[in-house]
Amino acid sequence: MSESAYARAGVDQAGAGSAVRALVEVLGGIETGAPSRSALASGHYASVLRLDDTRGLALSCDGVGTKVIVAEQLGRLDTVGIDCIAMNVNDVICVGAEPIAVLDYIAVEDADPAALEQIARGLRAGAEAAGVEIPGGELAVLPELIRGHPSPHGFDLLGFCVGLVDLDSVVTGAAIETGDVIVGLPSSGVHSNGLTLARRALGDADERLLEPTTIYVRAVLDLLRSDVEVRGLAHITGDGFLNLLRLESGTGYLIDHPLPVTPVFEEIAERGGVEPAEMYEVFNMGCGFCCVVPAADADEAVSILARRHPGTEAIGRATTAAGIVELPRVNLRGTREGFASA
Question: Which of 169, 199, 214 is the last residue of a domain?
Fold first, then answer.
């Protein structure tokens, strides 16, 4: 098998998957001396811990990745904070929880007040868009560890999100049935996954790569608070539509009416020489979030979500092909191992 474009750019997805499994295997054996509070198995977008018999605490941790290099190269640090918030709150909402707070961790090569003010502006904008507080965080000055592009302007940015959910309202995907409709919400572009490959194709100074990740929280909360039965929620990040397989359903997924592919992805594919299977494994390809609902509720779900995210459409349905994601428009069929020609 030939080496993927992503691997040539420096990211071995298969190796990373093995590394994560090794990490989870060890951490899954932690003994606290008390019954576990975990309400979900590992692998969901967010963890849920039981606070008591009725309420759960949803938790997520994520960063911005090499999008910070683009910010450094362009000297624009006021948007990546939005990405940091988005990557975390969009995961927490996937289990049906309402995000309430995010803590930030900023590691810098040099503690420059002007740079930190710019980063903070993005964090504030993201927090206000998601309706969460930022009650605290951590600033680490690590000149021996962090090196900028260019130096001394290096930084890294991570977030940790907390949400609340009723335990009887946790959305896992287990309720999904064959024939349920997948509703897709449009992305704003590359978001915060696959930047290493995107940068290799387009260059570090392409302004399009700084377009902030869309925050879907308010729209999804609108849906959860409606009369629509929400059976599955998926943040479409790295692995693309294969993220649907993280849901606890015994179904497959057919995406036969996908949202339009954002032009930036077409340019990445052309200039980077990236095959369709890899593009759909690495990027969101124009769809940043999916909601799975009964067919009878599909029109109402689209209407609710489109109020905040125009371009939202029904893009497919759940199928009997368990563990399979089908993309007939581009002749691809995927499993947890990746996409291949159908």
Answer: 169
| pLDDT tens readout for residues 250-268 | 999 999 999 999 999 999 9
Distance CA 84, CA 58 (A): 17
Tell me phi and psi for residue 220, to 5 degrees.
-70, -35
Place of tokens 């910010």: 71
CA dist., res. 279 & res. 51, Å (int): 40
CB-CB contact of 327 with 317 (8 Å): no
Report yes or no on 16 lying in a domain: no
pTM over 0.70: yes
78: CATH: 3.30.1330.10
Q: Which residue has the tokens 């930022």?
A: 134
The string of pLDDT tens digits covering residues 149-205 is 999 999 999 999 999 999 999 999 999 999 999 999 999 999 999 999 999 999 988
Token code pair at residue 41: 């198995």
